[in-house]
Specification:
Elements lengths: L1 H24 L3 H17 L3 H9 L6 H10 L3 H9 L10 E5 L1 H4 L4 H10 L4 E7 L12 H6 L9 H10 L3 E7 L4 H6 L27 H17 L3 E5 L23 H18 L4 E6 L6 H7 L3 H5 L4 E5 L19 H16 L53 E2 L2 E3 L14 H13 L5 E4 L18
Parallel strand pairs: 1-2, 1-9, 2-3, 3-4, 4-5, 5-6, 6-7, 8-9
Organism: Eisenbergiella tayi
InterPro entries: DUF4015, GH
Keywords: Signal
Length: about 475
């Protein structure tokens, strides 16, 4: 019912705007000048945030009223987008989301995923804007993107897709893969990770990465982020906001900048920079991090992700706590993949502990699986007595309040796939999906996103829309 109410409100706003525009068109020149000033004042004052947002979502629809309004007021698509991103943050959404590839978003199968959101408690989609190959999935107005030919147009009409999703009350997050960018690295080798002889570093999959110490890389990522925000995405999410974990990284020459900053410092600084840029536009920022770095100092130093420091600047932090990603003995569990509830509950309990300022462990974890798109991390073992395991069992996680300097809400990625490569794995179906979601709630958090690389989601693990509280 909540989503239906959003749609009804949007349609009412469009009707009101259309009638107002027709009235203004028939007034005198003086009245027209007054109307222009009033319209500009509304956009600046923020009195009609929801109207502007819904109007942007309805641009170029089949509605004669919307088309007529645009023609008579002179507001084209670009102007409407610019007005939207200058508004304050929209009303906070309690995200219950799914991941959608750019390739999927550009097909008719996207309608099936929208229908899934309509039928269930889901309300959010995380859609690729720049994917794991470094390709931008729609033709955006970016000189840098066009210069290197980064566009691979999976989505021919991104404004239209966003409009359709908004009509269904869907919150949209733009996923931008950050420093794993083989396309940029191959086309701008001066920005790639290289050894001292200038040879490009490649991970075990043969893919090149860009250098997180290069400010031009930062600016490229933020240019894409700003474009995604201006076209209508509600939030920007950086994935692979880290260094590669492959053994060959020991030969990489990061440049003189690395003498002054370690990996955690530079990733945190990029987080601060990105947050400032996007917050100036009124756009929230989230980032994906390894689940194991929440309280593992060693693993954090390898990938450059400091959970506590990043959470001070992000609006949302999304640890990838897939049970398949924890090795035998992690979190005090023999086979974490076989215990989805306990794995999520214990990892989220660890999150609450760390953000409450109770510190991180010196040990590092064994990661049995991969990150969201397939790369393993350090592969070492952790003591069963780690604070992330049984030693925390006596504490109620809801009693662990984040320190005041923590800005980010925690929104974990959950596993909606069966990890057949894990010894002792179990099949993930409705019960396993629901168990993970319940564990998030029991740990005192309210938001989550499901990951399935093929975008095949288990509806039986989701509540029907009418049951969603």
């Amino acid at each position: 019912m909540r989503k239906k109410s959003i749609v009804a409100a949007a349609l009412l706003c469009i009707l009101i705007i259309g009638i107002t525009s027709l009235y203004l068109a028939g007034c005198s020149n003086t009245a027209k000048e007054t109307a222009v000033l009033e319209e500009a004042g509304t956009a600046v004052s923020g009195n009609a945030v929801s109207e502007n947002t819904d109007d942007r979502a309805g641009t170029d629809t089949d509605s004669d009223t919307v088309k007529g309004t645009e023609a008579e007021t002179g507001n084209g698509e670009t102007e409407a987008q610019e007005e939207t991103v200058t508004e304050p943050f929209a009303e906070k959404v309690r995200v219950k989301g799914i991941y959608v590839t750019g390739a999927m978003a550009g097909t008719s199968n996207m309608d099936n995923l929208i229908a899934l959101v309509d039928r269930t408690e889901l309300n959010t989609m995380v859609i690729d804007v720049k994917n794991d190959e470094g390709r931008v999935v729609y033709d955006m107005d970016s000189a840098f993107v066009r210069e290197i030919g980064a566009v691979k147009e999976y989505v021919s009409d991104m404004p239209g897709l966003i409009r359709k999703c908004k009509e269904h009350g869907i919150y949209l997050i733009a996923r931008i893969v950050a420093f794993k960018d083989p396309f940029l690295a191959e086309n701008r080798q001066d920005l790639a990770l290289t050894d001292k002889n200038g040879n490009i570093f490649r991970d075990k999959s043969g893919l090149a990465w860009v250098n997180p110490y290069k400010r031009e890389v930062w600016d490229y990522l933020l240019e894409i982020a700003r474009q995604a925000a201006s076209v209508g995405f509600d939030e920007i999410q950086f994935d692979y906001i880290r260094f590669s974990t492959d053994a060959g990284m020991s030969k990489v020459d990061f440049g003189e900048e690395a003498l002054e900053q370690d990996k955690e410092d530079v990733i945190t600084e990029f987080t601060i920079y990105a947050a400032q840029e996007l917050h100036d536009m009124g756009v929230p920022l989230s980032a994906d991090v390894y689940g194991v770095i929440i309280d593992s100092k060693l693993d954090a130093s390898i990938v450059g992700q400091n959970y506590y420091e990043m959470a001070k600047h992000l609006d949302y932090i999304s640890p990838m706590v897939y049970p398949s990603h924890y090795g035998p003995g992690n979190l005090g569990l023999a086979v974490p993949d076989a215990q989805p509830y306990e794995t999520i509950f214990r990892s989220m309990k660890t999150s609450r502990k760390v953000l409450a300022g109770m510190g991180r462990e010196a040990e590092d974890m064994q990661v049995s699986g991969n990150d969201v798109s397939g790369n393993s991390i350090s592969g070492n073992s952790i003591s069963e007595n780690s604070a992330s395991g049984n030693s925390m069992d006596a504490a109620d996680p809801k009693d662990l309040v984040p320190n005041q300097e923590i800005r980010a809400d925690v929104r974990p990625w959950l596993q909606d796939f069966t990890a057949t490569w894990v010894k002792g794995h179990i099949r993930y179906g409705p019960e396993e999906i629901r168990a993970q979601i319940q564990a998030v709630y029991d740990a005192g958090y309210e938001e989550w996103i499901l990951w399935n690389a093929s975008n095949r989601y288990t509806e039986g693990g989701l509540l029907p829309e009418e049951m969603d509280s």
